[in-house]
């Protein structure tokens, strides 16, 4: 395809380049105001600083990291993006029809389908072009050579590819098959998902076509299996549930009447057929019935217009789905963030590698002209897709500016300190006195705070104007050039109109496109349509300034680092107000409130420069007139309620107009129906539907309050204008005398020469006097530290005043300059007096310096005063630090010494430095000594450390190691006191308290004499616990020693009802300790004061154990009582029904299968048998347990296990005594039945003795004798329960009596007592 415009990029004309002198460079805004008449006609200009002005690069390179933007070059250019979007739509249209778009070729060039589509549409459409035979004309318009018969090829391509799409867009259902030529180039759609700033959903982008899976599950009814269908489905091979016929407005064939009758008959068959065509409502010809891959609707191939001859390849969509997919609105275009984070070094390596690989030569050898032409070629082609990355809008406050700043991390050398306060330092420029942004209170990133930009080859910034139409200044710190294009401010609307006319599709979907900084357009195209464009290459160390409302764009030639910020001067004020009105018409947010800034400036009218005061006075006049008119309009609408609001205190987002998004300041309208919403006075009709009388006018100032502010500005501005007019009038009269002499050809007499000299002197003196009286204090840069040539010395000022009084005319400023001279002389005298002191105060020096800085006269005393001020501040800082020794650390002393080393020598400074260094030496010595004492092995005694602390207390400084040493001594003393108190008076300490004390001692780096004794006690306790564990614990037991020795507390309900009732009846009783778990018991024993309280706790736990066991025995015995349900109970460890030989535990009364009990064959006949759950220990003989208690008493340490063991022994002794009192009669024969034990009747008292004996963890012969005597005393009575097949064939003795202590039965009742039954 041949482009309609030349492929070769023609560079636009160069913008002006200025090279200021040192005197001009000293006043940034003065110089910018001087070049403005020239530079604003081109929109941008370049400024080269004077030779030698090279600020150091202050950005923290190691800390700087950023995530760049991804830029695909051919998506940046507006017309190219339109073509890409069009091709994406065409590709989507055909892909939904099961076809792949291949872009055809014509004359061995790729055919521009978009241009072809637009030209045919402009000529009236396909039918008109064919009828009037205009295909040759279209070929010529597309740039093809005549006589090549290209027109017929264009017609064929249009009819095959574009005409169906055109018919679809106009509402017709044209669905032909797209046949592809093998020589055509297959089109791969751009991945729109990746190039959107906001990621759209899957259904909103064409790119999902390339990513979807081959197989999809189509809709199915519940219970059906979702199959993977063939994408080119014929109805004879796919079975699914039929759906009702859907009526859609679609163009269909006209069938004869007979066929309509047949259609009526086919409705009967539709109930049994699985799919029917939505056009003819017939289900026949299943091999020609297509199923939509989007909605599963079906169509005959011959019912579509025109008919399909073959089944489409790939997915196929019905007309309804096609309209739905292609009719979705486009997603807003924006840049995507890169997936990785870069440092400056890694980004530079990537950027240099990209450029050298692309141009196949070293980066520094690539000509800028070649890069520029290649850039505009890439952005204009759809065939090459080059992607670059751009680190833009990096906040300087996060990583530091490239310029040095005061109090920053970057330390400048003495010869570079002038750059800290330079007006061309972009951190200072927005807040200079002549910049109105100084009066914007918020720190706005990018406007008041600089932004950083890290570029690579081809990375670009698109056409845009600055926020609020402000100035911008860009400085390239280092790297390869940056190419700029700009248009003057007066051509802004023209540029916008041209871009909208050439790419209307983009602006239809995104009206604020130019505000998004995502679109460029070739400068040659803009120039062809009459837009003036200028260019420049910004090299390292150069500034580029853009003027108000000047559109600008550009790209980077390679890896570079730039910094930019905004500023606004007095001449911008009317443009700023005009911009706010423009934003209001676009419903665009403001960055700051223009009215608020104007009012802030007006409050400082007396200190404003005269030019700024004049500009603000005019702006405020327009503001007050507009506000007065709007308020009168509001009053006429019936708004009488008003309320004063301090909008300074509200954030911008809470005072934005709900309609136009303007930030309100002077006034706003609210309504009680929506208190969180407000509108400006321009949009009172858009607030809500309530009547205006319910509205409230919220105002910042009354009109009367604005009047004094305006009058102060007027007085300041008009005084200057009045004086200037008088001076001009006098000079005009003098000049008129010269002109009269020239007209009348008077001879060149001494009088005429003197008159000319007087006029020249008067002009020069007037200008200089006014400059002195204005008190301008711009930042000045002095070359080599010499005198600035625009400042007068004192002698020159004195001579100048004398010259004013010698003039033959009266200069009104002469008395004021005389007063200035007197102030200068008085300043010199005060300076001499102050410098004569040994070390004056810093406040007096600063006050005198401020006074001298306000005089625009060169004063030698200022340099000496500055030196003495630095010295005084340092001496005061040392004194202040010494007065607060708690804050005087080693680092503080070192920092003060480092600061004092660079000061000018002075006796007071030397004395202070000597004292400080001596103190630092002593502190370092004691810090090291204290550290060594804390880490010494073996540890020092308390006496040694206390002696060291006494010496340290006299040092007036903060010594952390010494303080730590002092704290360790205090902790050691406290520990010794606690250790002595623990064993004082024959007390027996608890193990928990002893262990905690020893643990604390190990963290105290002091030698503690009692520690070894306490550690040996703990070792003995641990050895005792191990011995006790070997005595009591079963092999591989899961129980702890304390758990075995203590009564069980977790095997049943916690309290009986009677016990609870008793507790409630005594409300004044102390709340009992919770004893529901072993942890609670161990805690109670550890915190008990003596053995008596420990025994009481264990007794309470034992009582709970008996109650819980009683309930457990009752529950288990009830399993074998006859019940109406005849359901077999679950028993044993396996929780199944009884079967075969069963064992019954003498303690819990539960039954166990003999096969489930480990060691069943080892059971001793005639001994009470306990189940695995009830037998928790080895139950050693009492003679093995008593020595354990005796050895523990010798150790003299209380521990929960020892208390529990003591309770076990006491409980055992009590039980033995009970057995002796209640001893059953032995059977004379002394023999007991071992296996066939019948149910025996036991008395309640004997049963309790037996249960309590079984609970004890000690083996006693009395228990065996009691059990044997009971077996011999009662004659066995065998009971067997024969169960049927339905009862699972089990045999077990059944208990017919309730457990002991059950209320319904008397105490003398007995119950059967089974053990083993077959």
UniProtKB/TrEMBL annotation:
Enzyme class at the top of the EC tree: oxidoreductase
One CC-aspect GO term: nucleoplasm
Domain JmjC: 418-584
Domain PHD-type: from-to ranges: 274-324
Start and end residues of each JmjN domain: 15-56
Domain of life of the organism encoding this protein: Eukaryota
InterPro entries registered for this protein in UniProt: ARID_dom, ARID_dom_sf, JmjC_dom, JmjN, KDM5_C-hel, KDM5B_PHD1, Lys_sp_deMease-like_dom, Zinc_finger_PHD-type_CS
CDD domains according to UniProt: PHD1_KDM5B
Organism of origin: Cyprinus carpio carpio
Cofactor annotation: Fe(2+)
PANTHER family: [HISTONE H3]-TRIMETHYL-L-LYSINE(4) DEMETHYLASE, LYSINE-SPECIFIC DEMETHYLASE
Annotated Pfam families: ARID, JmjC, JmjN, KDM5_C-hel, PHD, PLU-1, zf-C5HC2
Family, similarity comment: Belongs to the JARID1 histone demethylase family.
Protein known as: [histone H3]-trimethyl-L-lysine(4) demethylase
Catalytic activity as recorded in UniProt: N(6),N(6),N(6)-trimethyl-L-lysyl(4)-[histone H3] + 3 2-oxoglutarate + 3 O2 = L-lysyl(4)-[histone H3] + 3 formaldehyde + 3 succinate + 3 CO2
Biased composition (Basic and acidic residues): 1284-1298, 1309-1318
All copies of domain ARID, residue ranges: 80-170
Any one Gene Ontology BP term: regulation of DNA-templated transcription
Signal peptide, first to last residue: none
Stretch list, region Disordered: 1278-1318
Chain coiled-coil ranges: none
UniProt subcellular location: Nucleus
Keyword list, A-Z: Chromatin regulator, Dioxygenase, Iron, Metal-binding, Nucleus, Oxidoreductase, Repeat, Zinc, Zinc-finger
Major subcellular site: nucleus
């Amino acid at each position: 395809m041949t482009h309609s415009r030349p492929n070769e990029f023609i560079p636009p004309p160069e913008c002006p380049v200025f090279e200021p002198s040192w005197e001009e460079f000293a006043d940034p805004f003065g110089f910018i105001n001087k070049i403005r008449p020239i530079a604003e006609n081109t929109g941008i200009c370049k400024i080269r600083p004077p030779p030698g002005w090279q600020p150091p690069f202050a950005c923290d390179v190691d800390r700087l990291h950023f995530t760049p933007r991804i830029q695909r070059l051919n998506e940046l250019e507006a017309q190219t993006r339109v073509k890409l979007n069009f091709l994406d739509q065409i590709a989507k249209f055909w892909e939904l029809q099961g076809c792949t778009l291949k872009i055809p070729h014509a004359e061995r060039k790729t055919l521009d389908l978009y241009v072809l589509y637009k030209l045919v549409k402009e000529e009236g459409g396909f039918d008109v072009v064919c009828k009037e035979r205009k295909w040759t004309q279209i070929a010529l318009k597309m740039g093809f050579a005549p006589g090549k018969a290209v027109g017929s090829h264009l017609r064929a391509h249009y009819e095959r590819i574009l005409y169906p799409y055109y018919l679809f867009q106009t509402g017709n259902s044209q669905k032909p098959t797209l046949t592809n030529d093998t020589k055509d180039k297959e089109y791969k759609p751009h991945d729109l998902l990746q190039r959107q700033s906001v990621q759209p959903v899957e259904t909103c982008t064409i790119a999902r076509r390339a990513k979807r899976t081959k197989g999809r599950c189509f809709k199915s009814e519940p219970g059906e299996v979702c199959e993977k269908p063939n994408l080119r489905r014929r109805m004879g091979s796919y079975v699914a549930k039929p759906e009702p016929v859907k009526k859609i407005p679609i163009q269909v064939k006209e069938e004869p009447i007979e066929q309509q009758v047949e259609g009526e008959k086919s409705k009967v068959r539709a109930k049994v057929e699985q799919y029917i065509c939505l056009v003819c409502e017939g289900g026949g010809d299943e091999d020609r019935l297509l199923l939509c891959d989007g909605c599963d609707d079906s169509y005959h191939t011959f019912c579509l217009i025109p008919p399909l001859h073959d089944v489409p390849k790939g997915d196929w969509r019905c007309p309804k789905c096609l309209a739905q997919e292609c009719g979705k609105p486009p997603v807003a275009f924006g840049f995507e963030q890169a997936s990785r984070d870069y440092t400056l070094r890694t980004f530079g390596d990537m950027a240099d590698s990209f450029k050298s690989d692309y141009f196949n030569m070293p980066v520094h050898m690539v000509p800028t002209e070649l890069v520029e032409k290649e850039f505009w070629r890439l952005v204009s082609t759809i065939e090459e897709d080059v992607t670059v990355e751009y680190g833009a809008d990096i906040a300087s406050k996060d990583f530091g500016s490239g310029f040095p700043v005061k109090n920053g991390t970057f330390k400048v050398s003495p010869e570079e300190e002038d750059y800290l306060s330079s007006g061309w330092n972009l951190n200072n420029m927005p807040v200079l006195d002549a910049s109105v942004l100084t009066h914007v209170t918020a720190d706005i990133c990018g406007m008041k705070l600089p932004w950083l930009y890290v570029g690579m080859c081809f990375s670009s910034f698109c056409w845009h104007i600055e926020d609020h139409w402000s100035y911008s200044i860009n400085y390239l710190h280092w790297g390869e050039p940056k190419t700029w294009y700009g248009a003057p401010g007066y051509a802004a609307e023209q540029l916008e109109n041209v871009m909208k006319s050439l790419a209307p599709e983009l602006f239809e979907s995104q009206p604020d496109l130019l505000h998004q900084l995502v679109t460029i357009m070739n400068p040659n195209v803009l120039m062809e349509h009459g837009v003036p464009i200028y260019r420049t290459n910004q090299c390292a160390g150069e500034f580029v300034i853009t003027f108000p409302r000047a559109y600008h764009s550009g790209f980077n030639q390679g890896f570079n680092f730039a910094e930019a910020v905004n500023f606004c001067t007095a001449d911008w004020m009317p443009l700023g107000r005009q911009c706010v009105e423009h934003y209001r018409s676009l419903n665009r947010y403001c960055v700051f409130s223009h009215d608020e800034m104007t009012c802030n400036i007006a409050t400082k009218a007396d200190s404003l420069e005269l030019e700024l005061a004049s500009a603000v006075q005019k702006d405020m006049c327009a503001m007050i007139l507009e506000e007065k008119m709007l308020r009168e309009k509001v009053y006429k609408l019936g708004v009488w309620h008003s309320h004063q609001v301090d909008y300074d205190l509200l954030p911008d987002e809470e005072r934005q107009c709900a309609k136009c998004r303007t930030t309100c300041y002077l006034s706003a309208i609210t309504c009680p129906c929506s208190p969180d919403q407000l509108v400006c006075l321009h949009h009172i009709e858009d607030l809500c539907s309530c009547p205006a009388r319910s509205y409230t006018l919220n105002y910042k100032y009354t009109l009367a309050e604005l009047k004094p502010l305006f009058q102060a500005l007027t007085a300041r501005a008009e005084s200057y204008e009045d004086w200037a007019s008088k001076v001009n009038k006098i000079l005009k009269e003098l000049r008129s005398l010269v002109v009269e002499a020239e007209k009348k050809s008077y001879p060149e007499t001494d009088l005429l020469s003197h008159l000319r000299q007087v006029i020249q002197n008067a002009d020069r003196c007037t200008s200089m006097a006014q400059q002195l009286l204005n008190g301008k204090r711009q930042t000045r840069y002095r070359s080599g530290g010499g005198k600035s040539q625009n400042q007068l010395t004192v002698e020159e000022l004195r001579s100048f005043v004398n010259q004013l009084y010698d003039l033959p005319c009266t200069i009104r400023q002469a008395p004021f300059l005389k007063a200035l001279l007197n102030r200068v002389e008085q300043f010199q005298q005060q300076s001499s007096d102050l410098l004569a002191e040994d070390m004056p105060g810093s406040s007096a020096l600063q006050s005198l310096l401020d006074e001298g800085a306000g005089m625009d006269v060169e004063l030698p005393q200022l340099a000496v005063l500055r030196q003495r001020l630095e010295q005084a501040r340092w001496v005061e800082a040392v004194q202040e630090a010494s007065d607060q020794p708690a804050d005087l650390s080693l680092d503080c002393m070192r920092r003060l010494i480092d600061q004092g080393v660079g000061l000018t020598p002075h006796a007071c400074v030397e004395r202070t430095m000597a004292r400080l260094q001596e103190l630092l030496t002593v502190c370092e010595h004691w810090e090291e000594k204290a550290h060594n004492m804390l880490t010494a092995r073996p540890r020092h005694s308390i006496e040694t450390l206390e002696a060291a602390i006494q010496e340290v207390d006299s040092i007036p400084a903060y010594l952390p190691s010494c303080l730590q040493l002092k704290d360790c001594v205090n902790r050691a003393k406290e520990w010794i006191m606690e250790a002595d108190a623990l064993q004082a008076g024959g007390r027996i300490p608890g193990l928990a308290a002893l262990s905690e004390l020893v643990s604390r001692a190990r963290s105290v780096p002091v030698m503690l004499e009692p520690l070894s004794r306490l550690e040996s006690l703990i070792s003995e306790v641990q050895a005792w616990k191990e011995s006790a564990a070997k005595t009591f614990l079963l092999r591989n037991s899961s129980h702890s020693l304390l758990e075995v020795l203590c009564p069980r507390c977790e095997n049943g309900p916690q309290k009986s009802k009677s016990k609870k009732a008793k507790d409630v009846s005594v409300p004044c009783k102390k709340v009992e300790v919770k004893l529901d778990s072993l942890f609670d018991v161990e805690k109670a024993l550890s915190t008990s004061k003596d053995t008596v309280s420990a025994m009481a706790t264990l007794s309470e736990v034992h009582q709970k154990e008996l109650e819980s066991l009683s309930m457990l025995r009752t529950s288990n015995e009830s399993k074998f009582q006859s019940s109406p349900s005849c359901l077999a109970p679950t028993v044993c460890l396996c929780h199944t029904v009884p079967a075969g030989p069963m064992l019954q535990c003498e303690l819990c009364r539960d039954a166990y299968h003999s096969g489930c009990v480990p060691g069943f064959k080892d059971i001793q006949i005639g001994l009470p048998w306990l189940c695995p759950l009830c037998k928790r220990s080895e139950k050693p003989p009492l003679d093995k347990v008593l020595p354990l208690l005796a050895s523990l008493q010798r150790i003299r340490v209380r521990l929960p296990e020892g208390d529990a063991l003591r309770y076990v022994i006491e409980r055992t002794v009590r039980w033995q005594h009970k057995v002796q009192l209640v001893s059953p009669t032995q059977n004379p024969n002394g023999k007991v039945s071992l296996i066939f034990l019948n149910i025996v009747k036991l008395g309640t008292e004997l049963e309790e003795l037996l249960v309590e004996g079984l609970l004890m963890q000690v083996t006693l012969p009395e228990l065996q004798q009691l059990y044997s005597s009971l077996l011999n005393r009662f004659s066995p009575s065998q009971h067997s329960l024969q169960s049927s097949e339905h009862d699972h064939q089990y045999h077990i003795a059944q208990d017919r009596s309730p457990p002991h202590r059950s209320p319904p039965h008397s105490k003398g009742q007995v119950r059967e007592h089974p053990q083993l039954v077959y």
